[in-house]
Amino acid sequence: MKITVQLFARARDLAGAEHVELDVPAPGRVADLKRSLASRFPQVSPLVPSLLVAVGTDYANDQTQLSPDVAVACFPPVSGG
């Protein structure tokens, strides 16, 4: 299934796009989405283990199931003050 993902901050910069469409096997989970992101954008791979993923309006863990019609966003960790 195809999932559209909105990328923020460094993930967006490394992927070169604000929105990307990823192929995820059905039924897909956040872990599958992360693998697909790392495969399609190897330059983003170092960020993938620590990405925060929001599905709809809630943060999700790797086991959260996905559907093609849900909004998905990825946020790299931030630091600083």
What's the SSE blueprint?
Layout: E1 2-7, H1 9-15, E2 19-23, H2 30-40, E3 52-55, E4 58-60, E5 72-75
Parallel strand pairs: 1-5
Antiparallel strand pairs: 1-2, 3-4, 3-5
Task: Write a short abstract of this structure.
It is built from 2 helices and 5 strands. The protein is an alpha+beta fold and 81 residues long. It has a single domain, classed as Ubiquitin-like (UB roll).
The CATH architecture name reads Roll
Number of strands: 5
Mean pLDDT across the residues is 94
**CATH homologous superfamily name?**
Beta-grasp domain
Count of alpha and pi helical runs: 2
Write a structural description.
The protein is of the alpha+beta class and 81 residues long. It has a single domain, classed as Roll (Ubiquitin-like (UB roll)). Helices cover 22% and strands 27% of the residues. The chain has 2 helices and 5 strands, in the order βαβαβββ. The chain has a 5-stranded mixed beta sheet. The longest helix has 11 residues. The mean pLDDT is 94.
Properties at a glance:
alpha+beta, Ubiquitin-like (UB roll), 27% strand, 81 residues, five-stranded mixed β-sheet
